[in-house]
Amino acid sequence: MNFYQSNFAAFVLLNAVLAYREYRQGGEVPLLEKENNPRKQVESNDKEALKRFKWRFLPIYLLVNGADWLQGPYIYPLYKDEKGLAEEVVAALFMTGFLAAAISASFTGKLADKYGRRLACLCFCLTYSLSCLTLQSNDIIILFAGRALGGISTTLMYSVFESWMVTEYNVMFPDAPDSTLSGIFSTMTTLNSVVAILAGVIAEWVTDLTGTEKAPFMTAIICLFVAAAAIWKNWGENYGEVSSNHGALDVENLATPKKSTLRLFLDDKRLLALGVTSCFFEGSMYIFIFFKFPALKLSHKLAGLESDLPFGLIFAILMCSMMLGSLLYNYVVTRHSHITPSQILITMLSVASASFVVPVLVRDEHITFWCFCLFEVCCGVYFPLMAYQKGKVIDDSVRANVYGLIRVPLNVFVVLVLSTTREGTQHRDMVFTSCSALLLTAVAVCNAYL
């Protein structure tokens, strides 16, 4: 086996061992953590209801994320290699997507709260399918329109699905222990990592089979169609409510003036800290998505190798790393309850900062790749941790709206970075170093306010 095949086998084996260990030691963990306080026990009938709830939500959640993951390994190579676009044009396409996401984030959540999260999820399936279809064209205007649709879809995917789930959960299980919701988020991340691994392998397989890098995007449309059908059949509608029963955030009226929205963040320093963390960490993650393959290609070339990199396999390994992170997170929160979420978040942000700066200092393909794997481990910790924090801080009545608003500075940050994109190693090094510094800034903010 070559280097990447060996790493894939090692990560799969490590994840399998950790997952089995968690299953043997924790029973239903991470789906449900056992608690000593009898008043906080979920009754057996509620456990069955919880199981049905997960089966109603998780397969659809995994299908829509699978559609997204299928595109991950080949969106950059498709634009750059198959369509022959210059790096500045590719950056402009990515920037268009993030700009559309930033603009749509200011109103899609509010519309979802008003007209229904289920409807918004169905709209996501439609817009993302149209985005994939535009890649069949070489017309630059259609490609830019497709990226705009992709940006809107991303905003919907990262706000309305989770909003529907948390609100539905709070209605169905108002007295369930906090660890139950935390366990669901951990399960979502772990299973999502498995789907991402499979998506990377499938994406490479359909690309080799058809001879075109458009194939994964057409496969994604199938996933989106199945998800839409399942949502239509199995999900009920839920909305933002006037009165708030869950969450710690008190909001009188978010649908008015921007001043009210600004006050919302300023009045709750925890929400401000989560917004800063989301902007810098997820912004760095999207920058990483854009620059990871060029950085690996450079290291590969400096090693004197002329062979093509196995993008699908590399993507699968990175997703194995993310799964490892989610398993580690679940182990910590269920076995070491004395470690607070804020401590986990600060540690994770510090490690992520280091994973960006080391590849700038060391030009080695293996070290660069392992740093990227380490960053994905941090992503595996970040997503369930951040989802849990937002779930506890933000009120159900404005959940989709606030989730969307948190993504506005994130998308603006990515647009600003991508707007400066230039060919060459020097620019990429500057971007990685800046991401490292911003992650350390997030550490300081979290340390102060969380």
UniProtKB/TrEMBL annotation:
Functional note: Mediates high-affinity intracellular uptake of the rare oligo-element molybdenum.
Protein known as: Molybdate-anion transporter
Subcellular location: Cell membrane
InterPro entries: MFS_trans_sf, MOT2/MFSD5
Pfam families tied to this protein: MFS_5 (PF05631)
The UniProt record lists the keyword Signal: yes
Main location, first listed in the record: membrane
GO term, biological process aspect, one: monoatomic ion transport
GO CC terms: plasma membrane
UniProt membrane topology term: Multi-pass membrane protein
Keywords: Cell membrane, Ion transport, Membrane, Signal, Transmembrane, Transmembrane helix, Transport
CDD domains associated with the record: MFS_MFSD5_like (cd17487)
Signal sequence annotation: 1-19
GO molecular function annotation: molybdate ion transmembrane transporter activity
Organism: Glarea lozoyensis (strain ATCC 20868 / MF5171)
Membrane-spanning ranges: 89-107, 119-136, 142-161, 181-203, 215-232, 271-291, 311-332, 344-361, 367-388, 400-418, 430-449
